[in-house]
Amino acid sequence: MRPLDYRAPADAAEAVAAVAERPDAAFLAGGTNLVDHLKLGVARPGLLVDVTSLVPVEITEQGGGLSIGAGVRNADLAADPRVRRRYPVLAQALLAGASGQLRNMATTGGNPLQRTRCAYFQDVSTPCNKREPGSGCSAIGGVTRQHAILGASDACIATHPSDMAVALAALDARVRVLGPGGDRTIPFVDLHRLPGDAPERDTVLEHGELITAIDLPALPMAARSAYRKVRDRASYAFALVSVAAAVDVAGGVVRDARIALGGVAHKPWRAHRAEDALRGATTTDDSYRAAAEAELADAVAQPGVDGGNAFKIPLLTRTLVATLRDLATEEA
Amino acid sequence: MDAEIELTVDGRRRRVSVDTRTTLLDALRQRLAVASPKKGCDHGQCGACTVLLDGRRVLSCLTLAVAQDGAEVTTADGLAAEGPHPVQRAFLDHDAFQCGFCTPGQVCSAVGALDEAARGWPSAVTTDVAAEPELDRAEIAERMSGNLCRCGAYARIVDAVQAAGRDGGAR
Fold it and tell me: Is the dihedral of CA A62, A66, A69, A72 positive or negative?
C-alpha cells in the first residue's frame, strides 16, 4: 500500500477543495469498499479526505418527500419508519444488501459509489479496462455469471453491485452534489454511466464532486412497492438479478408503475419500456410477462467458461412477473 | 504518515500512534495488544473482526483507525468485564461454538443484532417491513449472516442468540 495522507476538514466546502486540488485524492465515508480496495491495490490514493462528520446525517421532510443526508448510514435509513411506510422498496433493497455490520458503516452517499464486484476488476493481476484503461477485459469470455446483459460494451461487461441504487432509480430520486464550481442536482438515473469506451468512469461525477444528499420525491404509489433479489445464497451475496417496483393499480388495471432492474447492467437499469407496456394493461401475468419482454428485447447474454449468463433473461422475466403479481394483489 | 489517536477500548482510554493505513483491527491487535477481535479474511466477508463501535456492530478490518479518533470500542473481551455477558453465557449454555475462532465476532455481532431487534429494526426476511419484527430463527439467521463459522455451529448459534434475546440479552 502506498503512503497515505489523511485529512478531516471542518466543512464540506473545504473537503471538496482538498480533493479537487489533488488528482490522487479521494473522499472517505463508511470505507467499506474503499478500505478493501486499498488493501487489494485496486485503489491507490495518496490522500483520503474524511467526510463522515461533515455531510448531513439527518432524514428530513421535503415537499412531501424525504431528503436523506449523505452521511445517513444504510442501517438507519432502512430502519426509518417513514421510509418503511412510504418507500418500502428502499428499506427492502437496503436490507437485502451486505450484512448488519456493513449496513451500520455504509452511507447514503457512499453506497451508490461502490464499485463493481467483477472478480477481474478486483484482481490486480488480471487485465481490466475499468481498473487500468486500455489493458483489456478479462471478463469477456471468462466467468460471466455475475455480468451484464444490458448496455454492456466491448470494453466492459461489469454490473453495478448496489441494491439501494436500484430502488433509488425506480423512485425518481435526485442526487445533490457539491463540487469545486458550486452545487448541482442530478437525477439519480443519470448518476451512473454505461461503460462505452470509458469503463473507468462509473458515474458522471467530476473529480472533487461530493454527494451531500439524496432526495426522494413525493410518490404515493411507492407505498405499494417492493424489492426482490435473486442470488446464489440466501443472504449476504450480490444479486444475480433484482427488481425494484412500485405500482398504482385499480380495478384490475395498472394505472402507473416505476421499475428498475439490478444485477444486469453497468448502472441500475430504469425499465422505462416495461413501465410503458404496463400503463393501462390488465393486472395479469400475461401483461407482466409482456412488460418484461419489452424491456429485455435488446438483452444480450454473455458467453462464458462457466456456461455464461443467458439464464438471466428468463430469470429476470420470472422475477419481474412475480414482483408485479405480488404487488398487484397486495392489500391496499 | 503517522497520526496520534485516542480510543476508549473496553473501558480503558488508550492513546496510540498509528500509520494512516492501519485498520482499526490492526491497531487493536498489533498496537494495543487487544487480541479478542480476530483477523479472518481481512476483507469484510467473514465477520471475525466484529466489534461494537460507539455501541454498534461494525467490521474493524474495513475501518481505518485514524478515522475513529475519539471512538469507544467494545470487544468480546470487554463485554465480559464483570463476568460473562448474557450472550456469552448463552453461547456456553447452548454449546454454540467449536474451535472458538469466530466466537468473539459472533458474540459482538449478536449483541448488536439483539439491540437492533429491540429497537424494532426490520431485516431482509421481515414479511412486513413497516411492522415490528418477531425474532424467530429465520430472523436470527438473517441478522447473523455476516458472521461465518468454519466449524458450522450455526444451528446452536441461532439457539444461543434466541435464548439471549428472550432473556433480554441485548444489554
Answer: positive
Q: Is B130 in CB contact (< 8 Å) with chain A?
A: yes
Q: What is the CATH number of the domain that holds A267?
A: 3.30.390.50
CA A322: distance to chain centroid?
Answer: 21
Mutate to test the interface with A, among B1, B38, B42, B62 (most CBs of A within 10 A): B62
Examine the domain organization and report whether B57 and B123 are in the same domain: no
Which pLDDT value is given to residue B32? 98
A214-262 pLDDT tens trace: 999 999 999 999 999 999 999 999 999 999 999 999 999 999 999 999 9
Last residue of a domain, one of B48, B79, B110: B79
Cα Rg for chain A, rounded, in angstroms?
20
Please count the residues of chain B: 171
Task: Report the domain count for chain B.
Answer: 2
pLDDT tens profile B68-83: 999 999 999 999 999 9
Residue B57 in contact with partner chain A when CB distance is under 8 A: yes
A332 touches chain B (CB under 8 A): no
Considering only CB atoms, which chain A residues are within 8 Å of B130?
81, 84-85, 88
Rounded Cα gap, residues B75 and B98, in angstroms: 20
What is the extent of the structural domain holding B61? 2-79
Report pLDDT digits (tens) over A40-57.
999 999 999 999 999 999
> H helices within chain B, ranges in order?
24-26, 76-79, 86-93, 103-118, 137-143, 154-166
Range of the domain at A26: 5-49
The answer as to whether B29 is a domain residue is: yes
Q: How confident is the model over A62-66, as a mean pLDDT?
A: 97
Is B171 inside a domain boundary?
no
